[in-house]
Design goal:
This protein is mainly α and 273 residues long. The protein has 10 helices and no strands. α8 runs parallel beside α9. The longest helix has 37 residues. The chain is elongated, with a radius of gyration of 22 Å.
Length: 273
Amino acid sequence: MTKERTRPAARPATVAAVLLLAVPVAAAVLGPLLAPAVAPADDGAPYALGGGHLLGTDGTGRDVLGLLLRGGVSALGVACGAVALAYLLGAPLGLAAATTRHRWIDELLMRPVELLLPVPSLLVISVVGVGRPGSPAAIALAVAAINVPAVARLVRAAALHAASGPVAEAMLLQGESRARILFGYVGRTVLPVAAADIGTRVPLAVFTVAAANFLGLGLDPASPDWGVTIAASREALLIQPWAVCAPAAMLIMFTIGLNLLSDRLIGREVARR
């Protein structure tokens, strides 16, 4: 009965989530290819509307639509790459700590990474920015390093119950390898928690990267990145609102769409179980 009532409301929400997510993702993936065809090659007057520029120009006369199409790669790519790297490093660490039979190994694995937890994220990014100014790879590594301790702790906490449960014990007695128990059983029980966490962690990474770029700690000020564009045009919000509102709308749509979609997928998985 419960499933019957939730399906009609869940389907439009899923469609809305996919649409919200598809627009910024499509702009990030296809934008660099489309930009030369839809944006004028010549710069216009600063903060101008019209004159062949569909969304006007920014403070240096660059076409806002062209910036919008070229800026998604760094805005979303750096954040998604950082979260993927954080899970690539943190998830095996958390799983290994949860499944070990020796407390000293658990302590040895978890305590060093926890030293990074109280460090402010912008401080890490600013230190990296001094060493590798304007490097998207360096920013992605910094954001990944910030997220590894939290991911490891989350995965460890989510895996503890399954790792010490009767199913894992039975698999061990049957002679199953630890790798099969770790990734074949315990890892699967962690997936819904990880999916929910990714739904919130990626948007947080997007806004961390955007905030770093906004504060001048990240990419070059002339970069078309959405965060950089917002920072560069914020003083002209009332004169040329598209220069600020268009990239901001992309970031907001990506955040809401990803959260809605992850919620729908988790709800579907829970209902299926």
